[in-house]
């Protein structure tokens, strides 16, 4: 049977489709219209929306099995010729021109392309970038990969005049950090980024050939044994009336379970969607009280837009914490669909965040309960399609969890309210290290907006760090110490990540991208240092605003 042929779609036609609200992206040189699949996507609609207008081939390959990619072929509507230049997706603020009688649909001239790129690059939900949106960019030269010709990148070195809200000072900090990133990482020109992607694909093929996608089930047998011992000890100590010891063991049990739920959520165990999902639901919902569906929706977006303050839910913790001064602008979260207000309470909390950071992490699990129930009750996951039944299995798991934990343990097995309270508190505080481990990988890394042309592997390496630890401690970190490798290749089973680390380090050396590796203590110092820096910036902003408010001249802050 002859393979179906598809029409060649011009950039202008694709822009028109997106302007009409279509969820269109590029996959293997084919144009995919994903509108029918949005509400069925098990990983959530937001992940797809962040790919609209982009060549999503690298990201889709990293996240999906070959079978899942094959299923996407049914949504092909056309193909493109040549290299695709990314738009900024509408969810990120990209603006698109609809097709009209005044604009020829076939007009794909250089002028049209240039206008499209500028329109979507400069019109964004983000605040004006002091680097990429500068009206008078300065040109600098940057090294390229493997001696390829360098091309110009833009950065602003212009001075900033005082404004009426104190933000100009903070913008100078943004410029400085962005300039540092531009100097530290390879050029954003297409030749350099394409070379990085080509070597990244070669590395992926090598990882596959060395069998690193094959799950080590013997390692999971050891994991299951550890989980059983911890849960058994929790029940034994509970029976003996040693409530504190029981709570510690139960908290450690939950801490360890998170790692295997994470593996299952990425289809890193059996590589079968439904099988790994059921494993994840049993572990997360039935045993841990957390929704694996919520985690998938949240985590997929995190992997795609890592450390983007407006878009990455894993760094959106207002009003309690902020890792960038951009949160002072009360920006809108595209994930939560609400404005993260920088109000009076936020100003107080951010001023003391270096001191409250670990305290807040002690209660992080309570917030995950809230997010899980919001996801399930509000039906934010797919209600139709292959994953329609996951929500109901999860709700069953939630009922099961709250029955055995609240009724079976807290109510029936512990005799008084004080001991119940202490048991609840300790069991929920002990898993705190997993929250610290998650934050450790990203909080101290770059939050710079480098524009739509940065390649997926460079973005992951720029925004993620690994933790250096001895092999015997791998069980404690559960694979989260290899977040760089995991972000590059999310479906590698975690017990193979250490073997992949050397290959990734060689890749980084070859393409000239720094590989961030810190010890656990040093990494935590960097995180607290980042929080302290933002806290100082908040204090400076408050002082500027106070001076301006007390001044007769709201523009320059001078008394007359």
Question: Would you kindly provide a brief summary of this structure?
Answer:
This protein has helices at residues 11-19, 45-49, 57-63, 66-72, 110-122, 167-184, 190-209, 217-240, 243-265, 273-287, 292-304, 344-351, 353-362, 364-377, 390-411, 417-429, 432-440, 456-463, 474-477, 483-488, 497-511, 520-550; strands at 24-27, 30-33, 76-79, 138-141, 152-155, 332-333, 338-339, 466-468, 517-519.
Give the DSSP E fraction (strand runs of 2 or more residues). Answer: 5-15%
Q: List the uncertain runs.
A: 109-163
Average the pLDDT over all residues and give the rounded result.
87
Strand tally: 9
Structural class: mainly alpha
Attribute tags:
globular; mainly alpha; 9 strands; 560 residues; two-stranded antiparallel ribbon; 52% helix; three-stranded antiparallel beta sheet; 5% strand
Would you give an account of this structure?
The radius of gyration is 25 Å and the shape is globular. It is mostly helical and 560 residues long. It starts with 10 loop residues before the first helix and ends in a 10-residue tail after the last helix. The longest helix is centred in the last third of the chain and has 31 residues. 41% of the residues are buried. About 10% of the residues have low confidence. Helices cover 52% and strands 5% of the residues.
């Amino acid at each position: 049977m002859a393979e179906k042929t598809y029409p060649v779609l011009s950039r202008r036609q694709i822009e028109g489709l997106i302007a009409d609200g279509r969820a269109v992206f590029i996959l293997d040189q084919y144009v995919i219209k994903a509108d029918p699949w949005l509400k069925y996507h098990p990983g959530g609609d937001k992940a797809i929306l962040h790919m609209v207008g982009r060549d999503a081939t690298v990201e889709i390959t990293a996240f999906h099995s070959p079978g899942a990619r094959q299923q996407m072929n049914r949504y092909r509507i056309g193909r493109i010729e040549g290299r695709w230049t990314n738009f900024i997706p509408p969810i990120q603020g990209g603006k698109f021109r609809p097709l009209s009688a005044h604009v020829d649909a076939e007009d794909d001239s250089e002028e049209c392309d240039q206008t499209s790129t500028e329109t979507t690059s400069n019109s964004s939900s983000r605040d004006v970038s002091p680097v990429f949106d500068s009206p008078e960019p300065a040109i600098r030269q940057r090294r390229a990969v493997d001696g390829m010709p360098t091309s110009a990148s833009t950065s602003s070195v212009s001075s900033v005049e005082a404004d009426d809200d104190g933000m100009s000072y903070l913008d100078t900090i943004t410029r400085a950090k962005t300039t540092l990133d531009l100097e530290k990482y390879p050029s954003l020109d297409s030749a350099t980024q394409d070379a990085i992607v080509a070597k990244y694909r070669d590395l992926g093929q090598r990882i596959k050939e060395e069998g690193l996608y094959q799950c080590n089930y013997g390692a999971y047998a050891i994991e299951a044994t550890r989980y059983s011992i911890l849960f058994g000890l929790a029940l034994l100590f509970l029976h003996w009336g040693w409530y504190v010891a029981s709570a510690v063991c139960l908290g450690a049990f939950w801490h360890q379970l998170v790692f295997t739920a994470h593996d299952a959520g990425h289809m890193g165990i059996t590589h079968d969607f439904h099988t790994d999902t059921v494993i994840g639901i049993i572990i997360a919902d039935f045993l841990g009280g957390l929704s694996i569906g919520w985690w998938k929706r949240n985590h997929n977006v995190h992997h795609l837009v890592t450390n983007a303050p407006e878009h990455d839910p894993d760094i959106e913790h207002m009003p309690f914490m902020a890792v960038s001064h951009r949160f002072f602008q009360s920006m809108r979260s595209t994930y939560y669909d609400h404005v993260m207000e920088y109000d009076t309470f936020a100003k107080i909390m951010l001023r003391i965040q270096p001191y409250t950071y670990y305290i807040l992490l002690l209660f992080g699990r309570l917030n995950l309960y809230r997010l899980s129930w919001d996801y399930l009750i509000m039906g934010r996951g797919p209600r139709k399609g292959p994953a329609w039944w996951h929500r109901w299995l999860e709700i069953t798991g939630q009922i099961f969890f709250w029955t055995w934990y609240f009724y079976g343990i807290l109510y029936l097995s512990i005799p008084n309210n004080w001991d119940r309270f202490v048991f609840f508190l300790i069991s929920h505080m002990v898993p705190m290290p997993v929250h610290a481990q998650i934050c450790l990988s990203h909080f101290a890394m770059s939050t710079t907006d480098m524009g739509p042309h940065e390649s997926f592997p460079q973005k992951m390496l720029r925004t993620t760090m690994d933790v250096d630890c001895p092999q015997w401690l791998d069980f404690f970190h559960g694979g989260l110490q290899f977040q760089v490798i995991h972000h590059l290749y999310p479906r590698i089973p975690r017990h193979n990540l250490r073997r992949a680390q050397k290959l990734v380090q060689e890749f980084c050396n070859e393409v000239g991208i720094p590989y961030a590796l810190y010890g656990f203590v040093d990494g935590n110092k960097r995180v607290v240092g980042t929080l302290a820096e933002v806290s100082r910036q908040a204090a400076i902003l408050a002082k500027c605003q106070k001076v301006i408010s007390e001044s007769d001249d709201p523009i320059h802050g001078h008394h007359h």
